[in-house]
Amino acid sequence: MNIPSQTALILGGAGFIGSALVERFVREQWNVVVIDGFCERTSARHENLRGLENVTLIAEKVENVANLDEYLSASDIIVDCMAWTAHRLALYEPHYDVALNQLSHLHIATALKKHAGKRLIYLSSRGVYGNYVGGEITEETPLLPEDVQGVHKLAAECYYRIYAKLYKYSVVSLRFGNCFGERMPTHGEDIGLIGGFIRDVLEGRTIEIFGTHRSRPVVYVQDVVEYVWRIATQSQFDEPFTAFNVNGQNIPIHDIAQNIVDACGTGEVVVKPLPHEIQTIDIGSTPVNTDKIKSYTGFTPSDDWQEAMKRTVEYFSKHIA
């Protein structure tokens, strides 16, 4: 019998990406502690963790966990997945977004002052770059977010960069775009580009895409998990703060929509003019360079995103029905 000897602390671990990470660490024989406040309109669900062994769940917002220091001290790796991913809604509810995408991370960044040498992986966003126009986006590209969520994600990165250096712990920040896969939210408003497209088709609505020649970086959730796993199991991080771009494919939005229609076996795609609201927060179509993380981890995601999309559609079909 294998007895887990290492512990991962996963903040936001009951959500979409967080629970996929929990599953991977459990499979690798780690103990896992999940702290998740199950905030409304996030992807956190108790059923996401059902059947997983060696998992301790603290169903509290991280700011309310009285013995947080004990969990930080006992962890071999900390993964910060806490987030609200509703870009459009965040424009009109910035105070809710700042609580989930900025202040909760500041709480961890300062709580780690007693824990020099700890390692943390933060799930950031491609949105921190904003609408950069150039050949490609690298980790050295200027950070000029165009939407509220991008602003708060960048602020959280800055907190980690400042306090990691001050308190002598280490942070790796992973910047990625549209993540899709099993355990995505299937209900509620503003569930993301891909989730919204899939739900539209399954509920008999036409997919509406806005503007032409627009593309998006998309990454399958299990590829994000693989990157996190490989970074987490490195013996050490090289710097107090390191940022990596993480993206699978840069795909035209029309191709994404058409692939979803093909996977569902029904549906229609129509193109409409780009509304002012969306144009205001649009991040453009500049491709993202991921050479740095591929070199660091030795991992390159599969280019078979259509098969991953098919599995995602099957997941939606079960949960919407």
CATH architecture identity of the domain at 7-184 and 219-248 and 286-301: 3-Layer(aba) Sandwich
Fold-level CATH name of the domain at 7-184 and 219-248 and 286-301 = Rossmann fold
Question: Helicity, in percent?
Answer: 25-40%
Instruction: For the record, give the distance between the C-alpha atoms at the N and C termini, rounded to a whole number.
Output: 40 Å
Main sheet attributes: strand count, strand direction, barrel closure? 7 strands, parallel
Number of helices: 11
Please report the first level of CATH classification, the CATH class of the domain at 7-184 and 219-248 and 286-301.
Alpha Beta
Give an overview in words:
The structure is a single chain. With 321 residues, the protein is an alpha/beta fold. It is 39% helix and 18% strand. The protein has a domain at 7-184 and 219-248 and 286-301: NAD(P)-binding Rossmann-like Domain (Rossmann fold, 3-Layer(aba) Sandwich), CATH 3.40.50. The chain has helices at residues 16-27, 68-74, 87-92, 94-111, 148-167, 193-202, 221-232, 253-264, 276-281, 291-297, 305-320; strands at residues 7-11, 31-35, 55-58, 77-80, 119-123, 170-176, 178-180, 207-210, 215-220, 241-246, 249-252, 269-272. The strands form three sheets. Strands 3-2-1-4-5-6-10 form a seven-stranded parallel β-sheet, sandwiched between helices. A three-stranded mixed β-sheet has the order 7-9-11. α1 (16-27) crosses α7 and α8 (253-264) crosses α11. The mean pLDDT is 93.
